[in-house]
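Need tokens for this chain, all 342 residues.
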Amino acid sequence: MYYANPETDGSGQMLDFPGSNYLWLAPLMADPYNAVKVSLGGGGVNGGAHMVELTATPGGIAYTELPYDFTQESGERISAMAFSPIDPSYRYVLTTGGHFFNSSDDGDTWHLSESFTGPESHYFYGATIYPSKTRLGRVVIGGSGYSNPPVYSSMNHGVTFTELDNGLPNTLVFQITGNEDESLLFAATEVGPYVFVDQQQSWEDLSGFNTPDQVYWTVDYVPELSTARFGTYGRGIWDFDMSSDSTSVEEPIVVADAFQLYQNYPNPFNPVTTIRFNLPENADVRLAIYDVLGREVAELVSGRIVSGVHEVIWDASNVSSGIYLCQLTTNNSLFTKKMILI
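Here are the structure tokens for all 342 residues:
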């Protein structure tokens, strides 16, 4: 369906899939040169695995099947498509059989990565391709990781790939995106939200004690908010604030009649961060830092503390990059916040 203006259009133009052999949710790729044109991943008019060009016209949606057939094995279809945001003449296609193709001439000719078979796709959602917005030629792909790594990275437009799965479970990866400088990559997976910290070259689980144990279908990065926004299966949208500027992530203090642990700032951080907590009354308090295996790496506060808002600085110079848990224990309460050291 096409809406020229989704905010005002009461109805849009519709088109049934031309032909057959499409995924349930067939991939779409915007045309970098024409706002009313997209590519649909097939399938095809007569089967096969073609790209089908869709164009919105006053009379409806017109379609043209492009000639190249990406089929490498029976029943194969296109699972993901993308173009480089740095140079849109570079195009990329991944198939349900894990075959990867690249083009350097706007898709006029295609080249198969012959020595590589990557992740297969989910039958419903397909797979994902993330072309770098900072390094031309870098491409990250994700899909099914049940019989192979779920994520691979290439630095030469997909001619060769290396595994990018350190710290990532063998699961389905539905979508990948990155922050502005790609020091962080985010993956929506079947087992939760994950972040790849480039400095430590490993994936970390972003889920915390308050996030749902659910399938995470989608992820977008919102640069204006420094936020990774994940969509889940039936549990709504969850935002993860990844700001590193303390002026933008410091939580306003609202003195409440309750114990409270605030999110550290900045977060992610390197190597110093500020942790604040509120006590509505005098209390025995312990504030400690743990790694993801539950091992204590620092004790910041221990003893009787007077009521009010308190601020503690943690210098993490002596520990490695990664995910850490800040835990505040009071009389009858336990609070935890997740922190990322980069």
